[in-house]
Amino acid sequence: MKNPEAPAPPWAELGPERAAEFPKHLQERFEGRKFHDVDPPDFLDYEGAEILLIGAEAGIEELGIRLDPQRETLETAEIFNDLRMEKSEH
């Protein structure tokens, strides 16, 4: 989660007019840092919240997690429901 009060290059942020305005109890969690993990997930409830995603390499075993990927097709993709789109049109 990006700290909306931390400076960033213009190309890497929404800008002050569109930045999230977190309540004091969430903003304090940054403790002056530029980023914080998305915990609590309440950060995601605010318009303008910016998330930094960092991809993992193929060998994720070193992270100590196990992924169980499932094949997603046009027929099973929930994105169409989420965006309220008709699958037949896209």
Radius of gyration: 18 Å
Order of helices and strands: HH
Number of strands: 0
Proportion of residues in β-strands: under 5%
Largest sheet: none
Residue share in helix: under 10%
Shape: extended
The N- and C-terminal alpha carbons lie at a distance of 32 Å
| Continuous helix count | 2
How many domains comprise the coordinates?
1
Question: What does it look like?
Answer:
The chain is mostly loops and 90 residues long. It has one domain. Helices cover 9% and strands 0% of the residues. The protein has 2 helices and no strands. The radius of gyration is 18 Å and the shape is extended. The model has no long low-confidence stretch (mean pLDDT 83).
What topology emerges from the helices and strands here?
Blueprint: H1 24-27, H2 79-82
Keywords:
90 residues, little secondary structure
